[in-house]
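Hi R.,

As promised on Friday, here is the backbone we talked about, encoded as structure tokens. Could you run it through your design pipeline when you get a chance and send me back a sequence?
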């Protein structure tokens, strides 16, 4: 595949933060001479000036090769008919804007730099192209052909679930590689052969170093939520992995924000990318309402939180710490609200059960730290509440991105104590969001109007009440009817 090679040169003295090496402007990752010029950084802050802490966005590269025009329907895309049939079966009648703009170019093999908020349709924007370009190939053991890197376990599982129907249609094998689950089982999946791997950087690096995975056959690489990978300190692992994929391969980078950390990845790994931004304001989604709910003190905040949690319908509530999440969850259960906790201190199996219960409606309230701010998609979730306001505008955007997804409407409400008002005003300016300010009191109609808040039942619940009832199948019933073992012959279960 012939493409014009073009990357942005590093400026004199500019260091490569991911590797500790200085960049050489005269060479690029594909072995050619780089002669790219990009617009100089304009130093303009997100949100029109905001506060002094607003991060700068870099000037995106100017593509030398004109992009292909967007399409209006999936039928206009050059991809296998089996993918189009599966799209129709999944109820996908027309592409979302980021899909319409990037898919024609990604299917043609171009590198893509896409900015879009969570819920904008990014997963299929890169997923359909990755699968179409991998179709018909067969991976050798431990040698995947396509790679999707994501920052969190939840996002990896969501991406895998979203792509599975389309991968099956093309007879492509998917493997999910994340921490918190058995590394031996993941090694076996790679050994058996997987064309596509969806992974978090740390676990994939472990598998590579163990010799359980090689990346030199990866022809298509996706970085999803690249800004969070940078924020979470994954940049060294990400660059280490990207340096091992096949030279000259295709790179698709998607991010909600384009700050200086993402700039490193763009300059180092993308060649003459097609650039597309769904939402330049990074949060001004017309179907999303933003409310700053001003409360008088901690007592009013606790009471208002409980009433909001008792609403009809589901809600995600964000707090800063694991301890605060566990404490609020226990308080809500005592008040009669079906609430479950989600944070990094939970095992992967606990987190999976909690998310399943929330998505199925057995849990009405998901109380979470920022671990849930990315990678969780719940249909018809119309309210997100920041019980503890975030300290960074990007955290606000990603928390709020759990609602108003895929064209739906939603509300983001933030409880603000008197001492937090100035910081919240600065944060909203940095996020380029205009919020409605309302002074609220527990039990008042205005709180109900905005959030659906109501008094809880007051009938205490336990954590077991938030889980789906366990089904008793024939195998369980047979075991119950099995005669007891004789004494002196311990069962395998009791001997463990």
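Update: got your reply. Pasting your designed sequence below so it's all in one thread:
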């Amino acid at each position: 595949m012939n493409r014009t090679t073009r990357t942005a040169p590093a400026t004199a003295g500019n260091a490569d933060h991911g590797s500790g090496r200085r960049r050489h402007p005269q060479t690029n990752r594909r072995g050619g001479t780089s002669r790219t010029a990009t617009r100089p950084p304009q130093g303009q802050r997100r949100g029109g000036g905001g506060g002094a802490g607003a991060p700068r966005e870099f000037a995106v590269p100017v593509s030398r090769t004109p992009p292909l025009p967007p399409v209006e329907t999936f039928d206009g895309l050059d991809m296998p008919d089996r993918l189009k049939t599966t799209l129709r079966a999944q109820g996908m009648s027309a592409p979302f804007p980021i899909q319409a703009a990037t898919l024609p170019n990604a299917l043609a093999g171009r590198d893509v730099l896409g900015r879009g908020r969570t819920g904008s349709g990014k997963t299929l924007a890169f997923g359909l192209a990755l699968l179409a370009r991998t179709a018909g190939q067969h991976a050798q053991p431990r040698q995947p052909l396509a790679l999707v890197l994501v920052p969190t376990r939840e996002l990896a599982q969501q991406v895998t679930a979203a792509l599975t129907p389309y991968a099956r249609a093309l007879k492509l094998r998917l493997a999910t590689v994340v921490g918190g689950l058995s590394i031996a089982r993941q090694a076996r999946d790679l050994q058996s052969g997987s064309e596509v791997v969806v992974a978090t950087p740390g676990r994939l690096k472990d598998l590579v170093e163990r010799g359980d995975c090689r990346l030199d056959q990866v022809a298509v690489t996706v970085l999803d939520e690249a800004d969070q990978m940078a924020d979470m300190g994954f940049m060294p692992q990400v660059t280490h992995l990207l340096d091992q994929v096949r030279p000259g391969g295709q790179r698709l980078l998607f991010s909600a924000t384009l700050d200086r950390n993402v700039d490193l990845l763009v300059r180092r790994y993308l060649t003459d990318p097609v650039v597309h931004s769904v939402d330049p304001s990074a949060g001004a989604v017309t179907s999303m309402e933003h409310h700053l709910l001003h409360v008088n003190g901690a007592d009013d905040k606790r009471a208002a939180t409980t009433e909001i949690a008792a609403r009809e319908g589901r809600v995600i509530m964000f707090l800063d710490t694991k301890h605060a999440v566990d404490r609020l969850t226990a308080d809500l259960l005592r008040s009669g609200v079906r609430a479950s906790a989600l944070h990094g201190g939970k095992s992967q199996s606990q987190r999976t059960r909690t998310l399943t219960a929330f998505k199925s409606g057995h849990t009405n309230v998901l109380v979470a730290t920022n671990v849930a701010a990315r990678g969780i998609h719940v249909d018809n979730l119309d309210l997100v509440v920041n019980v503890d306001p975030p300290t960074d505008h990007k955290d606000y955007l990603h928390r709020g991105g759990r609602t108003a997804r895929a064209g739906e409407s939603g509300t983001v409400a933030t409880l603000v104590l008197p001492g937090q008002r100035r910081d919240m005003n600065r944060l909203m300016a940095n996020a380029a969001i205009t919020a409605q300010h309302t002074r609220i009191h527990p039990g008042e109609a205005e709180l109900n109007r905005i959030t659906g808040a109501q008094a809880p039942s007051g009938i205490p619940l336990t954590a077991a009440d938030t889980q789906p009832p366990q089904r008793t199948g024939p195998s369980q019933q047979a075991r119950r009817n099995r005669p007891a073992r004789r004494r002196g012959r311990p069962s395998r279960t009791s001997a463990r």
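One thing I noticed while checking it: Residues 74-277 form a domain with the Rossmann fold fold (CATH 3.40.50.300).

Thanks again,
M.
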